[in-house]
Write a structure and sequence with these properties.
This protein is an alpha/beta fold. It has one domain (7-264): Rossmann fold. It is 50% helix and 13% strand. It has ten helices and seven strands. Strands 3-2-1-4-5-6-7 form a seven-stranded parallel sheet, with helices on both faces. The radius of gyration is 18 Å and the shape is globular. It starts with 11 loop residues before the first strand and ends in a 6-residue tail after the last helix. Bound molecules: NADP nicotinamide-adenine-dinucleotide phosphate.
């Protein structure tokens, strides 16, 4: 199916992790393009503010707050979106968080939350929407991974591993369904200026919100991925060389990771 042939008006999109950062910017952009946008995350006040903002500027959006760690809530969110607008055409699996701490020191609650959000929620939501997409021979699943998936490094080992899983899952699924009209793509940003750094590294918000690419740049990448059926996008583009670097220069990376720790700063709260 040619990209330009798609009529995006009133297509139904679900964006996870839309209460802030990349998800919020993506929801705004998709609404501007005429899609009906369902947004989810835990902080419902922020979601309702976003819905009001989108509606005021002529777009269509609904909020479905919930904690994606819970499988029953995931099912309920999909059910509610379908009740409101019918089958989901576009799923943006964006919700996530970083946590810079050696595994041995990390609480199991944090570790399992990371697995729940980055692994179970991504696979479960995809599993819930995919049959309808395949039946319609049309659909878009856009997954937010990270450059961290290409270069596993402490103290983000678990985060990196979950993002590698998202990359592998996306690439495999892309190959599984590409001939059946469903597009699967994965976005791999480097640092992005969001609240991510507040949670992951304990940074002050003033630092986190000024460190890295803009959220609009990532949201535009999501849109380009949908329209041009791109399989993966790195932000910035040259980060695509990080994976081969990690493979070819593994010893150097083993030796050099303390430099990375320096770049994320001393404010790390762990
Ligand atoms: N910023 C970066 O440097 C960077 C780089 C590469 C990749 N990424 C990825 O980009 C994605 C978005 O992150 P961001 O940078 O935009 O950070 P952010 O502003 O902190 O956004 C994270 C979003 O995930 C949601 N979320 C977290 N836990 C959740 C849960 N249990 N249930 C439902 N929603 C949950 C948060 O909403 P609530 O707290 O309201 O639930 C929030 O909306 C993440 O997957 C992250 O790994 C970020």
């Amino acid at each position: 199916m040619g990209a330009s042939a798609v009529d995006w008006q009133a297509k139904v999109a679900l964006v996870t992790g839309a209460s802030s950062g990349i998800g919020c910017a993506t929801a705004r952009l998709l609404a501007r393009q005429g899609l009906n946008v369902a947004v989810t995350a835990r902080r419902e006040g922020r979601l309702y503010d976003l819905v009001r903002e989108i509606t005021r500027s002529g777009g269509t959006a609904l909020a479905f707050p919930g904690d994606l760690r819970d499988p029953a809530i995931r099912e309920h969110i999909i059910f509610q979106v379908r009740e409101a607008w019918g089958p989901i055409d576009v799923l943006v699996n964006n919700a996530g968080f970083g946590w810079a701490e050696p595994l041995a020191a990390m609480s199991w609650e944090t570790a399992s939350a990371m697995l729940d959000i980055h692994v179970y929620a991504v696979v479960h939501l995809t599993h819930l929407v995919l049959p309808e997409m395949l039946a319609a021979r049309q659909g878009w699943i856009i997954n937010m991974a990270s450059i961290a998936g290409d270069i596993p490094a402490p103290p983000l080992s678990l985060y990196c591993a979950t993002k590698s899983m998202i990359q592998a899952f996306s690439e495999g699924l892309y190959r599984e369904v590409r001939r059946e009209g469903v597009h699967v793509g994965v976005i791999n940003p480097g640092p992005v200026a969001t609240e991510f750094g507040v949670i992951a590294y304990g940074w002050q918000e003033s630092k986190a919100l000024h460190h890295g690419a803009s959220v609009d740049r990532v949201a535009t990448a999501v849109w380009r991925m949908m329209v041009h059926r791109k399989k993966n996008i790195y932000i910035p583009w040259y980060l695509r060389f990080v994976r081969p670097f990690n493979v070819l220069c593994a010893r150097l990376v083993d030796w050099g990771h303390p430099l990375f720790l320096k770049t994320i700063g001393r404010e790390m709260h762990r």
